[in-house]
Amino acid sequence: MSREYIQVLYNDPAPVNFIDIYETYNPGAVDTVYIKNPVTGLFEVVYTGNASPQLPQSGKLHISFPVTTFNVAEIRIAINSPAVPGWNEIDAVGIGIEQTYLWSTGATTASITAVTGGIYSVSVSNGFCESVSVPVEVTELPAPLLWHVDADGDAYGSTAMDSLSCSQPLGYVLNTTDCNDAASSIYPGANEICYNGVDENCNGLTDENCNGTLNLTLLLEGYYNGTGGMVPTLLHAGVGFNSNECDTVHVELRDGIFATTKLAEEKWY
Ligand SMILES: [Ca+2]
Ligand SMILES: [Ca+2]
Ligand SMILES: [Ca+2]
Ligand SMILES: [Ca+2]
Questions:
Q1: What distance in angstroms lies between residue 185's CA and the mean position of ligand 4's atoms?
Q2: Which of 14, 36, 131, 151 sits 20 to 30 Å CA-CA off 208?
Q3: Overall number of domains in the chain
Q4: Which domain holds residue 251?
Q5: Which residues contact 192 (CB under 8 A, 6 or more apart)?
């Protein structure tokens, strides 16, 4: 055996940019492929290769080239049969226009799977004509979260009522650290008010740190004796016996930290 060729004719001439040769037994013998230019009458080479045995025992030789500027009605396939063992078979030969794809992601496949949010577009080309798709925005959905009711509006929630939602429902927050969701003055980090039996700052302790210094205000009214001293007027000789008139003893006990908080008060007149 020696080199030989086959010619294939097509009924519907058209520009092409690929040839598929289906080698169904002992592939690898094809070493040159031509297409005929009807204007010049010459066969133009679109593929050359070293003929050699190919695995597996059948395959498709795909040949791509720029789109022809003429209609193709005839191709020639040159075969070096001695280069492969035994006999070799070609079952079918297809020609036509194939498209290439270039996605905004850089992918070149005909389709892609959008696994992240973003704007996607694809450019399709056959080597001569090209079109670019309208950009498509893919929105990535947020994962739903479990929200907890904040009934008193202090931004700290409780587990009394929950809501599974992709966005924050009105009156709900993500934390569950409000130890009293009916009082907006009670939440983690609030001022602990002493001696009221309430855990305002939600730390599990009631009236903590209230055993320190207290503010004691003692107001005494008396009689100034004119020599840098005071003398009590209560029952003072020469001043009067009406104790409601000007004698006052006023004692206020206030919180050691928050002096504006009056804890106790006594007055004597
Ligand atoms: Ca709350
Ligand atoms: Ca609260
Ligand atoms: Ca308290
Ligand atoms: Ca506390």
A1: 12
A2: 151
A3: 4
A4: 215-268
A5: 199, 200, 201, 203, 205, 207, 208, 209, 210
